[in-house]
């Protein structure tokens, strides 16, 4: 699976008022792991910033004066996203601006979604956390993603943070050991052992002790907090009360 985590910065809040894209940042994930093949461009907007927009990004027309226009990087950008699942926070904002940029270049470029599919993490977060704040900063705090280095909005920086948020928002198996990291910080490939059922004999049922049950309950509470709801073991029938009583007696 090829996924692109994407963010744009603009000269203002509405493309309909003539505002333009000034930065595109994107992080590529292959099978949910960063590939290192990122995309990052600053763009010359050929228009003024709206009041307050420069304070958000820290970008200036002077800095952007020698940067390429969107038309100069459009082919490279479309080749980069082509066929991918593109993940954006508040996708209607970024897609609206990208569609506007493509429209400026002619109808032959079509729309952004002609080249890729789009997933909106804001919609995902609102479904999972209804009635709560679901800005990127709020999700970082809720999901334990470090964003202390985010002093200004930036296309590539926000895409990198959103990649961590998206993985946390859509994961859960990593917490219970299905995903692991090697010492170098990368994902270690799982080791699969062959299972020979012919060598397995019948064994007596093992009853957990009271201490083991208590530790298990605490672990489940952590998983529920991480997942924001029930975890896998909640779907499994709880052990009979007699088993718990027997475990307490053994302890």
UniProtKB/TrEMBL annotation:
Quaternary assembly? DNA polymerase III contains a core (composed of alpha, epsilon and theta chains) that associates with a tau subunit. This core dimerizes to form the POLIII' complex. PolIII' associates with the gamma complex (composed of gamma, delta, delta', psi and chi chains) and with the beta chain to form the complete DNA polymerase III complex.
- The highest taxon in the source lineage is Bacteria
PANTHER family on file = DNA POLYMERASE III SUBUNIT EPSILON
Question: Mind telling me what this protein is named?
Answer: DNA polymerase III subunit epsilon
Q: What class of enzyme is it?
A: transferase
User: By its UniProt entry, which Gene3D superfamilies does this protein fall under?
Assistant: Ribonuclease H-like superfamily/Ribonuclease H
Q: Return the EC number.
A: 2.7.7.7
Record keywords: DNA replication, DNA-directed DNA polymerase, Exonuclease, Hydrolase, Magnesium, Manganese, Metal-binding, Nuclease, Nucleotidyltransferase, Transferase
Instruction: Read off the InterPro entries from this record.
Output: DnaQ (IPR006054), DnaQ_proteo (IPR006309), Ribonucl_H (IPR013520), RNaseH-like_sf (IPR012337), RNaseH_sf (IPR036397)
Q: Which organism is it from?
A: Pseudoxanthomonas winnipegensis
Summarizing the function annotation, the protein's role is: DNA polymerase III is a complex, multichain enzyme responsible for most of the replicative synthesis in bacteria. The epsilon subunit contain the editing function and is a proofreading 3'-5' exonuclease.
Catalyzes what?
DNA(n) + a 2'-deoxyribonucleoside 5'-triphosphate = DNA(n+1) + diphosphate
Q: Which cofactor does it need?
A: Mn(2+); Mg(2+)
> Which regions span the lipid bilayer?
none
